[in-house]
Amino acid sequence: MIMRVQGTVLERGPEWVLLHIGGIGYRVDVAATHAVDLRVGDEAVIWTHETVRDDRHELFGVRTREHLELFWKLIAVSGVGPKAAVKILGLFEVDTFCRHVMDGDAEFLTVVPGIGKKKAQKIVLELRGSIDLKADANERRIESTHVDLIEALVGMGYARAQARALAAGIPSDIVRIEDQIKAALTMVI
């Protein structure tokens, strides 16, 4: 399964982007709110879910790994397909979505096109027991923001927990992966 793509934005539509990756153009269906943020010519990283049918392959994209994990939970709900899950995750941050679900508030989902009151109640009912807000939101944010850095450090022999801790100490103004690695290694010395 294709889980993450990184490439240059060649084109974008109202709810899709075309990424140039290794000489191939991949169309990724994304939420309208996500497509607006992606500019032609920019480098983009999109977390994806691939569906394969007899007549087509489709990639559905979300902003972070955290969104992708919630996407998988959403499409496990009967009646919620990948397009609806992408629309839902385009409108809500993960923590906001989880808080509403944990509170049993289905009304918030009715603002999503195609999600009526009954489907919203079904989503909340089915997800309520599977969402854990006690997980450290900051750790999830660090993991999704610095995935390349963490993977590079793990590849160098650091434990994943140590790599996450080093990534947490990287200032947000350091954006190039080479500079992030250098900064992380200087913290160890």
From TrEMBL:
<dbReference type="Pfam" id="PF01330">
    <property type="entry name" value="RuvA_N"/>
</dbReference>
<dbReference type="GO" id="GO:0048476">
    <property type="term" value="C:Holliday junction resolvase complex"/>
</dbReference>
<keyword id="KW-0963">Cytoplasm</keyword>
<dbReference type="Pfam" id="PF14520">
    <property type="entry name" value="HHH_5"/>
</dbReference>
<feature type="domain" description="Helix-hairpin-helix DNA-binding motif class 1">
    <location>
        <begin position="72"/>
        <end position="91"/>
    </location>
</feature>
<comment type="subunit">
    <text>Homotetramer. Forms an RuvA(8)-RuvB(12)-Holliday junction (HJ) complex. HJ DNA is sandwiched between 2 RuvA tetramers; dsDNA enters through RuvA and exits via RuvB. An RuvB hexamer assembles on each DNA strand where it exits the tetramer. Each RuvB hexamer is contacted by two RuvA subunits (via domain III) on 2 adjacent RuvB subunits; this complex drives branch migration. In the full resolvosome a probable DNA-RuvA(4)-RuvB(12)-RuvC(2) complex forms which resolves the HJ.</text>
</comment>
<keyword id="KW-0378">Hydrolase</keyword>
<dbReference type="GO" id="GO:0009378">
    <property type="term" value="F:four-way junction helicase activity"/>
</dbReference>
<comment type="similarity">
    <text>Belongs to the RuvA family.</text>
</comment>
<dbReference type="GO" id="GO:0005737">
    <property type="term" value="C:cytoplasm"/>
</dbReference>
<keyword id="KW-0227">DNA damage</keyword>
<dbReference type="InterPro" id="IPR013849">
    <property type="entry name" value="DNA_helicase_Holl-junc_RuvA_I"/>
</dbReference>
<dbReference type="InterPro" id="IPR003583">
    <property type="entry name" value="Hlx-hairpin-Hlx_DNA-bd_motif"/>
</dbReference>
<protein>
    <recommendedName>
        <fullName>Holliday junction branch migration complex subunit RuvA</fullName>
    </recommendedName>
</protein>
<dbReference type="GO" id="GO:0000400">
    <property type="term" value="F:four-way junction DNA binding"/>
</dbReference>
<dbReference type="InterPro" id="IPR010994">
    <property type="entry name" value="RuvA_2-like"/>
</dbReference>
<feature type="region of interest" description="Domain III">
    <location>
        <begin position="145"/>
        <end position="189"/>
    </location>
</feature>
<keyword id="KW-0238">DNA-binding</keyword>
<keyword id="KW-0067">ATP-binding</keyword>
<dbReference type="GO" id="GO:0006310">
    <property type="term" value="P:DNA recombination"/>
</dbReference>
<comment type="function">
    <text>The RuvA-RuvB-RuvC complex processes Holliday junction (HJ) DNA during genetic recombination and DNA repair, while the RuvA-RuvB complex plays an important role in the rescue of blocked DNA replication forks via replication fork reversal (RFR). RuvA specifically binds to HJ cruciform DNA, conferring on it an open structure. The RuvB hexamer acts as an ATP-dependent pump, pulling dsDNA into and through the RuvAB complex. HJ branch migration allows RuvC to scan DNA until it finds its consensus sequence, where it cleaves and resolves the cruciform DNA.</text>
</comment>
<dbReference type="InterPro" id="IPR000085">
    <property type="entry name" value="RuvA"/>
</dbReference>
<dbReference type="InterPro" id="IPR012340">
    <property type="entry name" value="NA-bd_OB-fold"/>
</dbReference>
<keyword id="KW-0547">Nucleotide-binding</keyword>
<feature type="domain" description="Helix-hairpin-helix DNA-binding motif class 1">
    <location>
        <begin position="107"/>
        <end position="126"/>
    </location>
</feature>
<dbReference type="GO" id="GO:0005524">
    <property type="term" value="F:ATP binding"/>
</dbReference>
<keyword id="KW-0234">DNA repair</keyword>
<dbReference type="GO" id="GO:0006281">
    <property type="term" value="P:DNA repair"/>
</dbReference>
<keyword id="KW-0233">DNA recombination</keyword>
<keyword id="KW-0347">Helicase</keyword>
